[in-house]
Design brief:
By secondary structure, the protein is α/β, with parallel strands linked by helices. The protein is built from 20 helices and 30 strands. β8, α7 and β9 form a beta-alpha-beta unit. The radius of gyration is 31 Å and the shape is elongated. The protein starts with a helix and ends with a strand.
Length: about 700
Amino acid sequence: CVWLVLTTNPLRTDFILCHQLFGKQRKGRKERREGGGTEPAYQQVSNTGDTIHLRQGAISKPSFFENQGLVRNLSFLFVWNMGMLHRYWSLAPRLGYGLWTKVSSRYLNIAVNSGSWRYSQYGYQQRRKDSSLASTTSQEESKAEKELKDSLQTKPAEAFVPKQEPLSFALPLSGGVGFLQERNELHTLVEKRLAILALKKHEVVDPLDVTFLSKDVCLVGVGISTTFDGFSAALKQGVFDPATRVLCVRDIFDRSENRRTLSNYLATPTDDAVAMLRTTLRFPHQRLVNEYVRVGTYGTPNTNSAQVLSDSSQPNEESSTEELSHGPFGLRRHDVNFVEWLHEEGYRVLPCDSKEQMEKLVQAGTLPIQQSTNHVLMVAPTAFTSNADAAVDNHFMDRQTENLFANSLRQQVLKEYNALYTRLTTRGSTSNTGAGVRAHLFTHSDHHGTPDAVFPNNWFSTHTDLEVGQCTLVLYPMKPTNRRKERRPEFINRLHAFQRYTHVVDLTRSERVNPPRFLEGTGSLVLDRVNRIAYAVLSERTDKWLTQSWARTLGYTPVMFHALDTRQRPIYHTNVMMCVGTRFAVVCEESIADPKEREMVLGSLRATNHAIVSISQAQMEQFCGNVLELENFYGEQILAMSTRALNAFTKDQLDIIQASVSDIVHADIGTLERVGGGGTRCMIAELF
């Protein structure tokens, strides 16, 4: 009866573990007495086949309970009871866990470690956040013990703790040291291969022209020091392995001795950011790239027809046809602007004014936190109408336009939206000719029932690991019921398809509580991402409790206050009365009636060294507060706004703004502002 109870209740795992340990120990001793056999490896598996996990512990050697008789039996009973105490003492689980850990480490020779360890028939395995270390099983026990001892010496990654004091402009890079070490090892391997590579006189490869963005992506500069023939020969002979993509970064127009090698104008401080000299980003010194991929990967045919092409995109005449047809790499595309390729692949571009500035980014192990981004999500107003649900508390909407014919209204707003989209996405060289922003453009239809889908920033926001510790996607609860339909599956699937956001914070259940609570994304929250401060105007769409909860979760400091329009009505969204950029801030002081709250907001902006552009309530109604800082194609800050807002700013105010950004990009979106009640900032959802 006792045996049946033990094997059919949840405590059986603890009992069977100890039973197997005793049984294996006795069997091993018997084998040694009879024939000098070695003890078999332990398999901590219950009768259901489930692997037993020892939290914060790993068995360091197989010999347990060296003492005989009563001591061994008492130890067995004590350990069994501690296991039950650890698992089922609901009133004091931490105390039970502490007793179990102390007893285990002292009497069972269990090595306590902060990693999570498992010992099964597949061997020891350490599961860590940044990397997975698996030790290979061995027939001989001494080898397994040695591998475990070596792996225990690896320090576990420290947990991220958001820092709020003092305010900083950079956070330590998570895993940055590991990336630099791996890159240096790969570069050393390439140097050794180049040293023994037999090259012709005109085939030259300078190791300073070689760097790795990751284990799979290698950059090779071709220009003054490295010739294309040398690059081609090294590529064919596998010098850049294990890379599956090799980029030939071609210096065609510059040819400067100060930038003769790749290392003179490019650095890779992290695996998702590239620092480049500002002079090499723009015409006439821009770089072009040829992208070569290993045959059978990234869409290349798995055949022997891959060719390494010459500098003129033609087969190398000095190479035989047989050598060309059996090359390991194929040309995927050629003559692509290097910065454009970086944006397409999701790399962050950091413009630098000197080589010393680039090297400082690499050596310091820190990067500036992004306040603005070059990647955005937009939804064209293909099914746009006036939203009566939103007009209840959005007093920026003009209700006299509700009777406009739907077709004529949509044609007009699409024309205006197209002008804004073109100005944002076109790459220009002069003022307001284009910012080169990379936009993911969606549409909506009448059957979706989402008249305000053109304002996607209210239902989600994204955050980088430098900002909040891990790449995070946040979903928000919205007050108008028809706006909740804007969280369409295809939109969320596209965000997940980026394979970037490892953490999702879903606040939408607050729509269903009683009473419901709302927090409408970066409409309710104006974020100072660099200093991790969230400014929030409390209203029916911005709940105080949710704001505080959001701030605790993401490591922000909330600055909450009240703001009113000219008719003393609450302002529904924070982003219509203020904007925070990297070096400046636009704020409507007049709308903050409480002097203490006004000074709290202004004092916070001064403490973070922002140049304050104070606008009036009349300017706020012209959407001067509904502006957004973005990064242009070259990684420089620009400010996007409507033409209506631009004309409402004074000259002195524009001087402060233009001193903080490289350009102001604007378009006439008057109908969208009047009917929809939202401006340029509301139409852009940032992707970090």
